[in-house]
UniProtKB/TrEMBL annotation:
GO terms for biological process: DNA-templated transcription initiation. It comes from the Bacteria. Belongs to the sigma-70 factor family. ECF subfamily. Residues 121-173 form the RNA polymerase sigma factor 70 region 4 type domain. The keyword DNA damage does not apply. Pfam families: Sigma70_r2 (PF04542), Sigma70_r4_2 (PF08281). Residues 30-92 form the RNA polymerase sigma-70 region domain. GO terms for molecular function: DNA binding; sigma factor activity. InterPro entries: RNA_pol_sigma-70-like, RNA_pol_sigma-70_dom, RNA_pol_sigma70_r2, RNA_pol_sigma70_r4_t2, RNA_pol_sigma_r2, RNA_pol_sigma_r3/r4-like, WH-like_DNA-bd_sf. This is Sigma-70 family RNA polymerase sigma factor. Keywords: DNA-binding, Sigma factor, Transcription, Transcription regulation. CDD domains: Sigma70_r4 (cd06171). It comes from Streptomyces malaysiensis subsp. samsunensis.
C-alpha cells in the first residue's frame, strides 16, 4: 500500500489492519483513479483528495463490495461520484477542456501551434459530448495512455468491451468533429 493513503487525520487510525485484498485493490487502481480525476478536476491535490475519499467510502463497505458481481465497476462509479461531489463543492465544472489542451506535447513541435491548439480544443469539446462510458475509455486509452487490458481492469469491463466502446467513441468523435468543420 502506498504511504499516501489514507491522507486525512480522521482515517489515519484505519490504516492499521486494512484487509489485504483492499490494500491490493487500492494499489492496483489508485493511479488510474487519480489520472481520471485529474482530467476532470484539473488539479492533482484535488484529484488525490477525491480518490482518497472514494477509497475511504469503499473501505467502509468493503465486505459488501466484495460480494458484488463487479467490484471494479462499482468502485469506478464511487470514484467518479466523489470527483463530481468535490467539483460541485468547489463550484467547478469539468476541467477536461481547460487543462488537457495546454498539456499537449504536440504544441511544442508544431509548425502551426495555433492550428494544433484549435484542433485540440475541438477534440476536447467533442470528448465532453460523448456518453460517460465512451469518455472514460477515450480518456484512459488516448489521453492518459493506458493499454486496453489496464483500461478494462480499471473500468470493470472486458477487453472486448473496451475495444468496442473505443470504436463507437471514435466514430462518434468523427461525426462530432465533422459537424465542427462545416
Amino acid at each position: 500500500m502506498t504511504n499516501d493513503f489514507p491522507r486525512s487525520r480522521e482515517t489515519t487510525s484505519m490504516t492499521t489492519g486494512l484487509p489485504a485484498d483492499f490494500r491490493a485493490f487500492h494499489q492496483l487502481h489508485r493511479k488510474a483513479y487519480i489520472d481520471r480525476a485529474m482530467v476532470y478536476l484539473g488539479n492533482h491535490a484535488d484529484a488525490e483528495e477525491a480518490v482518497d475519499a472514494a477509497f475511504e467510502q469503499l473501505l467502509r463497505c468493503w465486505p459488501k463490495v466484495l460480494t458484488m458481481e463487479n467490484p471494479a465497476a462499482y468502485a469506478w462509479k464511487v470514484m467518479k461520484n466523489r470527483v463530481i461531489d468535490l467539483a460541485r463543492a468547489r463550484n467547478r465544472g469539468p476541467a477536461l477542456l481547460d487543462n488537457a489542451t495546454f498539456e499537449t506535447a504536440i504544441l511544442q513541435d508544431a509548425v502551426d501551434p495555433i492550428a494544433v491548439l484549435e484542433e485540440s480544443l475541438n477534440l476536447y469539446q467533442a470528448i465532453k459530448k460523448l456518453p460517460e462510458r465512451q469518455q472514460d475509455v477515450v480518456i484512459l486509452l488516448h489521453c492518459r495512455g493506458y493499454r486496453v487490458a489496464e483500461t478494462a481492469t480499471h473500468l470493470g469491463i472486458t477487453e472486448a468491451g473496451v475495444r468496442s466502446t473505443a470504436r463507437y467513441a471514435r466514430r462518434r468523435l468523427q461525426q462530432l468533429l465533422a459537424k465542427e468543420d462545416r
